[in-house]
Amino acid sequence: DTAVSQTPKYLVTQMGNDKSIKCEQNLGHDTMYWYKQDSKKFLKIMFSYNNKELIINETVPNRFSPKSPDKAHLNLHINSLELGDSAVYFCASSLRTGLYEQYFGPGTRLTVT
Amino acid sequence: AQKITQTQPGMFVQEKEAVTLDCTYDTSDPSYGLFWYKQPSSGEMIFLIYQGSYDQQNATEGRYSLNFQKARKSANLVISASQLGDSAMYFCAMRDNRDDKIIFGKGTRLHILP
Asked: Which residues of A touch B106 (CB under 8 A)?
């Protein structure tokens, strides 16, 4: 059973389009996250949600909008895609906020042309 | 401010040797956690090991151990008896109780040579 899953795995799209990435976890965790990994492999947190409530919004352009319909799902919608949005986006979850390890999804490689 | 530093961008190690990957950190919060993750070429992020700031003993998980030196603010990962499958990118990360963010170092790319 996949613990944290993301769809799609690859996403190629043109500048200006709107796209969504979906994430689901079956671990029963309360907290979910979105990370961006750039071409130099640097990982940076974008958002975190705890029980559907936004906890961290890390100075991300407002073209990025997370949505958590329930605590097992955290989707990421991106409007008006730009070349600089090309990256790998990881979803992750942890048992709750605090000093708990995070479990990552397989990542979504977004390429904007 | 929180900070994680990994000073080794790349390492080459002979198979079966032990490997130490360096990580230093900085935080003003006395309560924090340190994590190591492995990212193989396939791209997934795999959690390896966790050390809490109040843990009295160094964490161990199979061939992985964390050499935690609190006074020096270092949390080095030690891999014993390295295997070809250990070739990957390794990230050190930290989370403190103050703002619940987890921050990652820039990573170390480990190559195990046959």
From this structure: 40-42
